[in-house]
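Please check this today:
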Amino acid sequence: MKRLFFVFLLTFVLHGMSFAGDFSKYRGVWASNDAEAVITDSVCMFFEKTPKGLRAFLNVPTQNIYSRTTYKDSAFVVETVAPLKLTDEVKTINGTAVRTLRIGDKVMSKVEEIETCKPYEKSRANSKSDVGKCLQEWRLGAKFGKDGDVFMCEVNTNRHMFIYLINPNMIYIRAAATANNDNGTLFFQNIRMMRNNNTGELTSYMAPDNYTVAADNLKIDNSKFNPNACVFNPDGGIYWSLISFTADQIKINGCGETYHVNRIDKFEEYFKYVPYETARLQQ
């Protein structure tokens, strides 16, 4: 009898908990003021602020990637760690039960849904009035790969852009809220971990109002777009301005280089297009 009770209790405790490799039930973008996660069927990328510094995790089980990057003592430490554990929880907000996600001691609310799909024919940029939609739609998807100690994962959703890149010359890990229109892209980087041996940059930063940045709509100021340069706004936003476009490629002015956004691209996972404001989840 005691054994049966123990089995029942263990089942109850583990219900709603998932180990790396079973991510689909948690798919989406989740955030709080001290954490953020993007989760697809194949990827879990997680950022957290701790008393000892900022940390980022990348789990891609199909690539055997279980990485943790920690900013500590003015340096980044990259190491392989145990798979993340994800747990469903429910909290009450204004009298309404809201599903949350716990990773470690961080509890986050969902700010965006992600719907995976099969590869599909993406819209063409036949006129300037198509540019904003195409900038959002063409980027949608997840890419990842590993070659020895070098690995990369990029996840772009309808409202966010994430990257986790580790190589000998650079560590580049970030989360950003984004919005697009026919003049270009507004890119608001709320989490940045960067070590660039070429430029000497060493940055570890999470916005103090991280949840608000991740959840709210970005407001584009069209006067900030400049096709000859990227423009840094005092609030932290960066404007990547339209240079030119064809039906299959859009060129925008990034910071120090021209970014090419292509209609036809290869992803490991494909996401369904949802208009920017519709994709926002409100708690």
Notes: The CA atoms of residues 242 and 252 lie 4 Å apart. Helices lie at 2-14, 131-139, 210-215. The longest helix spans residues 2-14.
